[in-house]
Design goal:
This protein is of the alpha/beta class and about 260 residues long. The protein folds into 2 domains: about 120 residues; about 110 residues, Rossmann fold, CATH 3.40.50.11810. The chain is built from 13 helices and 8 strands. It has a 4-stranded parallel β-sheet, sandwiched between helices. The protein has a 4-stranded parallel β-sheet with strand order 6-5-7-8, sandwiched between helices. Helix 5 packs antiparallel against helix 6, helix 7 crosses helix 9 and helix 11 packs across helix 12.
């Protein structure tokens, strides 16, 4: 995990929703917003946002990644923290945007400033806001946590996710066998190597099923979609939910 200084709790933030949330799990974005507002933070959601540029970047197309990233960078005009409900997208913005624009005398310093002001959602709640959810009571539940590979390596979000879940009354965390192993999604990896990807997610669904958990939570939608759909295809469905939605339901209540 990074050893970085954290700022004082702000009154206003940007929410970067990510393209996967926008297209496949919009409720996770709405729940991230609800959760931030519940703890007293005003949220600005730039409507022109789309993708962080990660798919192009990890495919080796840095020029396209720069074009996409530059369009996002132009949206964040105020010096507010950028909160991202995805460890992989937050990692792209914090670690790879500065690399993409390292030779640009104008966008280079801008990318570096935005990178330093970017936080994955659970990291922001735990390290910046230092939330205390001990007063929020909810029925007991047993959950397994999955952390995406890039979120684990680049952002240290497994520890933040665990800390957030441990702060919720009634939540029992069960650990799957080989917890650190990849689910097989890996963005374009699952498209280029479908047989390998399929074998990896089969191992993952078996391990999660073996925990006896009531549901799986994760802060990355790509992994959730991959694991959930694979388990359904295998005839052994696993209830999956974005961590933002899980926490929001227990803290804010069911959405009307």
């Amino acid at each position: 995990m990074e050893n970085r200084p954290y700022p004082a709790a702000p009154k206003q933030v940007y929410l970067f929703g990510t393209c996967l949330i926008d297209l496949f799990v919009p409720q996770a974005g709405m729940d991230a917003l609800r959760l931030l507002e519940q703890v007293g933070v005003a949220v600005d959601f730039p409507m022109g946002q789309s993708c962080c540029g990660q798919p192009a970047y990890t495919s080796g197309n840095e020029e396209s990644a720069r074009t996409v990233a530059a369009a996002q960078m132009a949206l964040f005009k105020e010096d507010w923290p950028i909160v991202v409900p995805s460890g992989s997208c937050a990692g792209m913005m914090r670690h790879h945007w500065p690399h993409l624009f390292a030779k640009d005398p104008v966008l280079g310093p801008r990318a570096q400033a935005l990178a330093e002001n970017t936080f994955e959602l659970t990291e922001f709640l735990v390290e910046v806001l230092r939330v205390d959810f001990s007063r929020f009571q909810a029925p007991p539940i047993k959950v397994a946590l999955h952390t995406s590979c890039s979120a684990r390596r680049e952002m240290g979000t497994r520890s933040h996710g665990l800390a957030l879940l441990q702060a919720l009354p009634g939540v029992e965390i069960v650990e799957q066998a080989n917890e650190s192993e990849c689910c097989g999604f890996g963005g374009v990896f699952s498209l280029k190597h479908p047989d390998i990807s399929g074998a990896m997610v089969a191992d993952k669904t078996a391990a999660i099923g073996g925990t006896g958990c009531d549901q799986l939570v994760s802060a990355d939608c790509g992994c959730l979609l991959n694991i959930g759909h694979a388990a359904e295809h295998q005839g052994k469905p696993i209830k999956t939910e974005h961590l933002a939605s899980f926490v929001a339901r227990r803290v804010c209540g069911e959405q009307a």
